[in-house]
Amino acid sequence: MSDRPFFRLSASGPGLPADKSNTILIVPVVSAGNVSQLCADLLIHTLALRQVGIFDPGYYAPAVGGKDGEHSATISTPMELFGRSGGDIFVLQQRSPVLKGRKEEFVTHLLRTIESSGFGSVLYLVGSDQSARTDDQMGSNRYVILAKDTTRDSIMSTPLADLLQLPPLGHSLADQDDPEKSVIPGTGLARRLLRAPGTTPSIALVHYVAEGDNLPDAHAMATTVAETLKMQIQGWTQPPSWSFAITHEEIEGKLLKLYKRHTAALEADVSLHKGPFAARSVALKIGITDAMVTLEALRSWYAEARNQWVLATRALDTRIRHHNAFYNGGDAGHIQYLDFLRSLISELEEFMQKCDELGYEASLITAGAGFNCIDDSNLVSTSQKQEKEQCLIARHTRMSEYELSRRPCVQGFSEEEYNYTTALSPSLFVRARTWEAETGAVTTEDSSRSRTIVNPSAGVIANFISSAALTQNELERLLKKLPFVRGESMSAELIRGAVADTFRSDHADHTSGNCIPLLGGWVYEKAWSLPMPPVAWDALHQLVACAGCALGVSRSFQEALLVRRFAFVGGRFEDARRLGVPVPNCLPEGAIPRFPRWQDQCSPHEIAMRILGVWLAADNRKTKRSELKKFTPKAPHGKKSTYSEHEERHWAYMRVQRSDERLASFVDALNASQKFTVLAQHNTKPKPTHVYVPTKECDAWVSRVRSGTTPVARRSARWTTSTVFRMEIFEYFHKRAPEAKAGLTYLDETEILDVVVMDNANGEWADFLKSVGDMLLVACGYSSLDCMLAGEVLATAKPGVSVRV
Q: Do 42 and 99 belong to one domain?
């Protein structure tokens, strides 16, 4: 236990009451909707109460803030007592909940303080969950409940007697021996406070509320308190802090009206069609035939279910948007209602699907006579037609629904079965005839007649099913299912997959079942997941003009470095001229880019970084390095203006391959130089390996500030660090890398060396970049940019020499 006193009086406060008989202590309990705290705020500001004392903050979740509406250096603590000198109303305001492990201790100390402070009676303000009300509690939003050791007679002798006119909340706590029965849902510590022993008459005002905008509920509770205590309130004074929520309330109010309108429309439609929907659902589940319901009735059922499905979907969407935006997902009642809406939507979808199936069967049966095979009526006699019709009718009556839905067997497939099957499935018949017309008709020649007759046998269907050839219509339908057809353009990932499959090895296994032949090539189930050969990148360069998209489809860090390097070297002049991309003037003779379309505006030192395998992934070159502001206080209290200077130094985030010895020595040289501060780590798994960490955290400062009342005082003031780079900054950069945005992981990600270089000279960006670039050239053995370009171009052009990237 703490040695600090539980309650301490303020030195300048009005003090505790002198007369015990008529003084009232109002205690808001942290509960549902915070309506009790809001009500206490209204009473404190309307009655202009002052701070009497504070309670030990060790019992509550940490909370601190400024005085509401006051320009004062004092602060607000988790729990304070307010009152007025000579007044008989004292209000306790609790701004933070009690810690779980100190609840019993807190209740004991609080009641002991109340007993010893001279209060005549206690009024607890409690909010309770509106969704937990029973049927007997629907008659009112406000109830009262007496404390365990308080009787009605003891309350009648206090100013709280008028509260007894409100309905009681069940039985009194004195009659409830079972603690489980005395729980008031959503009321926090109210049950513990009311069940604890005490001699001070105590009563609780319970107000049922829902989570949301509870300001109207707070006004209603405060009005009840004012009427009970015979207070003459001309108008309630709201705390100034409430004014910040005006715009919030307007937006919340619009969404609230929208979802309530949709909910009301849905509930009205459900109430209107509850009986018919239930009967129809039962009928569809047990099975109905065309003799029991007509096609028009099914269409009407479907339209009504569709309308209710639209209403339910709108209500679900608007409720989720409203509660996610303003109430952190909503309470248990909201979640329960969402489950009801999802269940209703699922039932309606099943209902509509069943209507579709039955309607399709009814329409096929109705129109079945129109789907006949091509035949010459002159060759079949009337008696033969009648026999066929009788056979079809007899077979229709004895075949089960399962037999009708099965795929017809080619062996022993009679003409009657063929005609009936094609009548039930005209799509199959039409597709087979189309295929036959495109691939060559199966015909028989009759010597007695001059024209050709199409053989009405099941051979057409059998050949169509067994053939691998696609008709033009089927090819168009397959094309519509490709992802890029649905959008305005094909994604770079889709193009990359097609290019990678095109340049796959000729020795690939096509018998494993993961690919199918199409249009003279092979379509694979999964795209090629390994790096592509250079010739494939040449094809991708012609199809994709975005350099960022090219980096986003790279499968390895080495492949991404290759793309960045070949944007400036490694190509031929003929390829650049064919693509219509001019060669940059900064490159010497022979340094022709292989991927000129993926170039961007770069300085010579940035080009050197790309060619040498250094990926400059992020920097702050566009930041405003120094900024001066003047702050003038609004209050005319003789305060002087303050001059504040904000400064930010340049930094660069680079990625290199740690296996490259030249680049490893480059990073070592950066760290050894006094011009830079370096943070570096190997991207190993499961945790990265830190290579260079600043000795002091403040050495890696990004921005700093200093201020003074005069320019001279400002310039002589010490700098205060505002922001610094810690090693965790690399996680931030990784999330914004091209491969992370594309949802990929480099195959060689453990080979990446992440480096952040910070400018200790605190100069301009161009000077900082030049100093880093010059150190890179020296580490790679070059004396100038021209020497580097000549050397790298020569290394690329040598046959049999591979460039390390």
A: yes
